[in-house]
Amino acid sequence: MLSRLLKEHQVKQNERKELQERRRREAIAAATCLTESLVDHLNVGVAQAYVNQRKLDHEVKTLQVQAGQFSKQTAQWISMVEGFNQALKEIGDVENWARSIEMDMRTIATALEYVHKGHLQSAGS
Predict the structure, then answer these.
(1) What is the per-residue DSSP string for 23-69?
(2) 57-112, pLDDT tens digit by residue?
(3) Residues 24, 28, 32, CA angle at the centre, nearest 5°?
C-alpha cells in the first residue's frame, strides 16, 4: 500500500513536472512571439522615420538650392535698382545743368539785346 501511494505520488509529480515544463515552453514561445511582434512594430516605425528623414534631407537640399538662386536673383534686382537710382540722379543732374545753361543763355541773350539796342540808339542819334 505504501509503495502504491509512493508510485502514485511519483506519477502525479511527474505529470505536474511535465505540465509545468509544457507551460514553461508555451510561455517562452508566447514571450518570443510577443518580442518578435514588438520588434517588428518598432522596425516599421524606424523604417518610416528613416524614409521621412531621407525625404526631409532631399527637401532641405532642394530648399538650399532654391534659396541660393533666390539670393542671386535678389542681388541682381538690387543691382538693377541701384543702377536705376543712379540714372535718375544723373537725369536730375542733367536737368539742373540744362536749367543752368538756359539761365546763362537768357542772361547772354538779354545782354546782347541790351548791347544791340544801345548800339542802335547810338547809331540813330
Answers:
(1) HHHHHHHHHHHHHHHHHHHHHHHHHHHHHHHHHHHHHHHHHHHHHHH
(2) 999 999 999 999 999 999 999 999 999 989 888 887 888 888 999 999 999 999 99
(3) 170
Residue 56 to residues 42, 60, 62: CA-CA distances in angstroms?
21, 6, 10
Global pTM? 0.48
Residue 2, C-alpha cell as written in the block = 505504501
Q: What is the DSSP string of 10-22?
A: HHHHHHHHHHHHH
How many residues are there in the chain? 125
CA distance 72 to 78: 10
